[in-house]
Amino acid sequence: MNEDEAALAGYAEALATAIDHALPGWVERSVARRLPEPSAEVRSAATEAGRRARSELGSQIRELLALDIDRQPTNPLEMLRRGVRYATEVLVGAGAPPVERDAFAERNFPDDRFDLTPASFADVDPALHIPGLEWGAAKAHVHLQRRRADGQR
What we know:
It is a single chain. With 153 residues, the chain is mainly α. The chain has one domain. It is built from 7 helices and no strands. The chain has helices at 3-34, 40-66, 76-82, 84-93, 103-108, 121-124, 129-149.
């Protein structure tokens, strides 16, 4: 592992840790956004769904970020986008009505009935903005360095 790859690994670890911390609150806030006055039962379900998101999705994202960049089949933001299912399950169970979405959202995120899909890391939690940018820049740098070393542009 060269110096740039080691730096990328550090940024990946920082992002994974930040995501791990952010997941429970994101699920709870997502539920509260669509049900502004949730019952104690719904709040409890949202808390439990947040814990599951942290355990399941957080672990999957950490595993993804530990892979070499050439072996990563997706990216952490895409995985977070699929993570709306945790809040969606709570909202469906609570009988929340689906929201009207634009054509782009309906086409690209058909299972997101409540328009919860994040466009950026900061949409999950503002604390993810900088770690997400740093990781993305470091990944792009390593990717370009490897391609240049192979004689590619």
